[in-house]
């Protein structure tokens, strides 16, 4: 028996291509507030039928049907590119073999119940359609048709799809943008981060063809913000999430360097700082956080940075090269910046109030192991102290004085001491905001005001994983999911959020991956070797595992994320006994319920 694979458009999307008598794509009709609106679908080139050009098609023999057992995946080479061949429940599927986010090999990921999860950052893709179902990332996988013929295995695929390894889902365009009043929009999105962009893209993917306006205080189109601390010398165009042409093609307007000063929810008007006003029908607030600043003398002087933009990160790298750097705060940002600058700066000193970094998040033992790794890379820690003064010479930073009395030489200072929600402009709006400034939303990302949604770092939302406890999860993956759920519910889909938080941090070429929500954990069960930086840590509350972190133990975090996503509970006794054996044997089938 042979397997034959060819690129096809999923039936769900193919139906959108049905033509009307006038030769144009038939519009969908959707009701918003009782008004019939027409949504005209435009096909993205990547999703087009690959067989219009026979020269673009490649066919190659790959494997025998018996070479794969149920639940197995294999990369197969077609000569000009690879595909991921999957067998599940007796059926074969084939999709792109690389995660479109950062290119992780999906064959090393986790296959479970019709989807494959990335081993690096947790993005999930439907194996039948290739569609992205959980984040991070924006694009889906190309899907290839699988055919079984006799006893040979063939793959027939588009060369373009094999080379790009990504597929942008078909999107609508705005039908008559030129007819709109500049001061009126159907959907207004405040904030142009991951949540805002995914919201806009999801609306277009669902056929929404009315006006969408995004506004941001930033001077750039949406970009990959985690890279500001992980890859600090990246230029804006290198980390852009979408090129300028994308926004033009799909009529997603982005107003840069525009700050909203107030929102009148009764009149449905957003008032900008410069006095400009814009009416809206639906509103998404995705403003994120504002970094905290130091409260000591000298905090405003030159060469003291909160890293918020690519220009900030680029400037720090330039000033820090062969100079003395002091970083205040052993946060994710502070630690990543320290790691990035360690080989470039003359010295890197890190000041932190706790006695070990990451104690509240990863626990003391993991924190000490990470701290040792940093010390081995010439980073000097000054713990259990704070900054009392920043001293200058000729207008520039010269020294950082600590409350312990220690004086550190400093040419550059990076501040990473936390952040607060950027929601001050909403105080008089009537939108429900808690005592810490977070916007309170329900499972559909709706605020207490009809038609007003919120997403991203500035919200408190019910997390199913923790019995719908209202939590704040300021992670890149979660912002993506918030944006998608908000968009679907702007279109009255009634979709509730259901995802497992997933994050990662990168330092000295090593990554810590983390899934779950470990706030309030009371114990940490560690398997592996902390000294060798090859371990997995299970965070428990009472008898239940609430989160997991690992270093050099892929894909265990993605595996556990799938278990948690399925609503299953992992008990502490599983970690102490069965998990240890599964690490030694490589068998983790017990997690999916297949083992004893």
TrEMBL record:
SUPFAM superfamilies: FAD/NAD(P)-binding domain, FAD/NAD-linked reductases, dimerisation (C-terminal) domain, ISP domain. One of its GO terms (biological process) is execution phase of apoptosis. Its main location: mitochondrion. Keywords: 2Fe-2S, Apoptosis, Electron transport, FAD, Flavoprotein, Iron, Iron-sulfur, Metal-binding, Mitochondrion, Oxidoreductase, Transport. CDD domains: Rieske_AIFL_N. Signal peptide: none annotated. It comes from the Eukaryota. It is found in: Mitochondrion. This is Apoptosis-inducing factor 3. InterPro entries: FAD-oxidoreductase/Apoptosis (IPR050446), FAD/NAD-bd_sf (IPR036188), FAD/NAD-binding_dom (IPR023753), FAD/NAD-linked_Rdtase_dimer_sf (IPR016156), Reductase_C (IPR028202), Rieske_2Fe-2S (IPR017941), Rieske_2Fe-2S_sf (IPR036922). Residues 60-155 form the Rieske domain. The lineage of its organism: Eukaryota, Metazoa, Chordata, Craniata, Vertebrata. Induces apoptosis through a caspase dependent pathway. Reduces mitochondrial membrane potential. The gene is Aifm3. GO terms for molecular function: 2 iron, 2 sulfur cluster binding; metal ion binding; oxidoreductase activity, acting on NAD(P)H. GO terms for cellular component: mitochondrion. Pfam families: Pyr_redox_2 (PF07992), Reductase_C (PF14759), Rieske (PF00355).
